[in-house]
Request: fold
Amino acid sequence: MNEGGLIMQRRKNSGPRNGKQKPEKETRSETDKSNYSKGKRSFSSDSVAGKKYAPKSGAPKQKASTLEDGIRINRYIANAGICSRREAESYILAGVISINGKVTTDLSTKVKYGDIVKFNDAPLAPEKKTYVLLNKPKGYVTTFDDPKSRKTVIDLVQSKCRERIFPVGKLDIDTTGVLLLTNDGELTEKLTNQKNNKKKIYQVTLDKTVKEDDLQKLLNGIELEDGAVKATTIAYTDPENLREVGIELYSSKNHIVRRMFEHIGYNVMKLDCVYFAGLTKKDLPRGKCRFLSEKEITMLKRGLYS
Ligand code: URA
Reply:
C-alpha cells in the first residue's frame, strides 16, 4: 500500500467495496462513463446520488402546532429557505427583520403563530422543505441569480419546484454532475461546513496522459495558495485512457480539482462530479433533476453516508 493508503492499480470495474455500499449501475446515456477502480475500491459514477431574498406573497400558512409556543426568529428565517440560521442572525442584527411591523434585533425573539415576519418589506413564509438532485450540464452557473445574465442551475429546476431552492456548494460553469439544491438552510450548513467537509468524487479528463507519480503527489498532498489539500483516493478510470482519473477528496474550496491538477502541470478538460455526500446521478440524465426520496433525505440529515 502506498503512502496515501491506496494501491494504484489499473483495473476496471472492480466489485463493491467490502459489501458496504453497493455501487450502482452506470447509465451511459451520455458521456458519463465512469467506474473508477483503485485497488480494492471501486467508485461508481452512478448517477445515486427567491429570487434574492424575496419571499412568496401572502400570509404564511403555518401549522398551529409548530408555532403555538413560538420558534426562535433565526430558525423561522432559515425555515423560510433564504439562508442558514447563522446567516439569519446577521440579518436580524442588521435590522432588516421585522415582526408585525416592528424591527427586531433581539436574537432571542420568538415568532408565534399568526406573526408576520418580513425581510425588509417582503414577508417570509416557511416553505415546505424541498430537496432536488440535478445532473448539472455544462454552461450553467451555480448561483440563484447571475449578474451577467448567464444560464443558472435554477433555470433547470424551477419548472419542477415552486419553492426557492439554492445550490448546496458550487460547481464551476463547465463542471457537470451531481448537484443538490434545497431550501433547507440547516442541511446546507451541515453539508457545506468547512470544518466537516463531505466526500466528493470527480471524474477528471486531463489535457495529456497523467503519470502515476503525479497521481501519487496528489495523494501525498500539495500546498496551494490557500492551504494544503490532498486526494484521499485517486485512480485511472480506464487502463486504455490515462488522461482520465477518478479523484476522491473532502475539500470544498473553489476550483479545487482544477487547481490541484494545474499545480502538478495538467489542465482539466472535463470535470464531472459523480458523488457528493452519498448522492450520485444514477439514472438521472444530464440536465434533468428529481426530488430526493425520504430515505435519501434521512440519510443526508443523519449523515448516514461515507
Ligand atoms: N473542483 C473544481 O475545480 N471545480 C468544480 O466545479 C468542483 C470542484
Observations:
- The longest helix spans residues 85-93.
